[in-house]
Amino acid sequence: MTGSNFFNTKIEFLKGVGPMRAELLQKELSIFTYGDLIQHYPFRYLDRTQFYKVAELDESMPYVQVRGRIRGKEVIGEGRKQRLAATLVDENGDQLELVWFKGVKWMEKSLKNHTDYIVFGKPTEFNGRFSMAHPELEELAEEKQTTSFLQPVYNTTEKLKAHRIDSKVIAKMMEHLLKVALPQVQESLSPELIETYKLMDKRSAYANIHFPESADKYNKAKFRLKFEELFYIQLRLFRQKVVRKADLKGQVFNQVPTLNEFYKNHMTFDLTGAQKRVVKEIYGDLTAGKQMNRLLQGDVGSGKTIVAFITMLIAADNGAQSVLMAPTEILADQHYVGLRAFADRLGINLGKLTGSTKAKDRKVLHEQLRSGEMKMIVGTHALLEDVVQFQNLGLCIVDEQHRFGVEQRSKLWRKNPRIIPHVLVMTATPIPRTLAMTLYGDLDVSVIDEMPAGRKEIVTVHRFDSHRLRVFQFVRDQIKLGRQVYIVYPLIEESEQMENYKDLMDGYESIKRAFPEYQVSMVHGKLKSQDKDYEMQRFVKNETQIMVATTVIEVGVNVPNASVMIIESAERFGLSQLHQLRGRVGRGAEQSYCILMTGYKLSKDSKTRLETMVRTNNGFEIADIDLKLRGPGDLMGTQQSGVLDLLIADLAKDAPILQEARAAAQRVLHQDPQLEQPEHANIRRHIQSLSANTVNWSRIS
After folding, report:
1. Which of 171, 330, 349, 695 is in the most buried spot, having the most CB atoms within 10 Å?
2. Which long-range contacts (CB under 8 A, 24 or more apart) does 648-656 make?
3. Domain-by-domain residue ranges, the chain?
4. What is the C-alpha to C-alpha distance for residues 180 and 16, in angstroms, rounded to an integer?
5. Pairwise pLDDT comparison (373 vs 298), residue with the higher score
6. Tens of pLDDT along 645-664?
7. What is the model's pTM?
């Protein structure tokens, strides 16, 4: 049996598994084959060399190991309130109480009195006595048999534990598997990469990630497996990019007469250095004869829209039509109003198509797009409808692209059957470099990292609930100066777990009571879209001075007169979300303020988020800290993207390894684009052994 076929063997055939356990492993941990199991890596290890006496315990310790003898156990309480309590006595005679609230009957049967155990868990202190809830246990006699220096601890679930499949059972399965599997493991990196990066061979890496022989070997195994995982992800992205650049022709846009006229006669401000650099990068793509596929990142208010308009002008100068698609009507309206002023001066026909465009207006739009009379159109998903046809669609710009599925975007590309349009994807969600390289490695990335001149930095402060009266007085002073205020709440209605957080309805009522002299609007996600738009429009026209809202206002609403953003229960929001909300103010010439309101009880992460917000306005720095706090899954909604199907690497912590793996992938493809050279045989064989639909090429099968 060859290596790749061997790793496709169903898990039930492994010694100690069988059909019943196999079904549970499939359902609970998605382990179907030998390949899945060998890549079910431990999430931490027990250091078998470190033991504590009960007298040395301290509540601040995370997890500790104690050796001792069980002296007595009893089941306390009735029914659902039952618990098992046991006493462990160490060699000094000090006692540690062990408690189980789940699996009481099974635990009581298996726990032996007057027997020596190693217990592992989190110590907590109550009335001067230490206890441990749900510790992991191991009989001392068993412990002597293991040769590993660190003992692996595997992820498992309550359901698996209920069926006696705990971390120790998985470790036993792993021992059986490694005996038969290691001889079948084939090297999947080239000798040159192994030599250059001093990588451990793959067999030893698998052996030492599960049962490390020493700290040094464990670190080498971890580096090897992380490097390989990130290398194959980057290799896949670069190959996609190379194939696309080689195969996909793009229209050549090299005429720029209207653009020159716009620069000379109609632009009332100077572009920043960053905007000029980005325009140059885009122009390079548009004249290269290949399809442009570029991601434009820029913080809220950095001037992406004007870059988008310049790109649309270049398309229009070369006889092509362009589309700017936004995720919401409010955003589409805003882009339309902003660009309309420029388009009118230049005599360009700019249209707008959204869900609420009237039928008779649609008809005119459809005809003008088909005839080519309309060169530019701004809109929402309505642009994707089949009736919307173009004479020559040459450029698609998608704003806040993570709100659109791949399928929706490709519908736009298909609107030009002759030659695929150029694509510019814009986002105001700053994506950390490591994430951008992994999510958008097949796109070229441009960054606007400079704010337009004259923009004042938003002053951000953190205030506790006890300062509310002073904050309200500040709001009054700002409204008297003619400004407007946002107040954002995390929830719509109170729910039991959240009862200590301000909820929107409650907040709306108390704001109306606190400011009887002013008009207050309210917007939340459960409102119908026309009601939402009506309330937003009242605020835009300054008919209401205070807007009470949930996070629906976070992307793209532009009210230059709003200069104060108050975020209630700010500890409940993620860092990137706080930064996005703050970006709703600071759009006019006046000094703007963001006030983060919280109670006194704050977790360590909440404090870090609030301190970061007060300290910096830099979206990229904020995104990096957010990635470290939250991990990549939450950012960008990447769980669905499939790209971040990572087994061992961690984008928040492994940026240096990612950089090296990326450089290595680039070098390999540069030397040998088709991977035909003999020294790349391992890489070629590994890719061929994987099914075409596997997203993560580092997978075994």
Report:
1. 330
2. 648/39, 648/41, 648/209, 648/222, 648/225, 648/226, 648/229, 649/226, 649/229, 649/230, 651/432, 651/434, 651/435, 651/438, 651/627, 652/434, 652/627, 652/628, 653/628, 654/226, 654/230, 654/434, 655/433, 655/434
3. 1-42+149-170, 50-146, 185-247+653-700, 257-448, 458-616
4. 13
5. 373
6. 678 887 767 878 888 998 99
7. 0.64
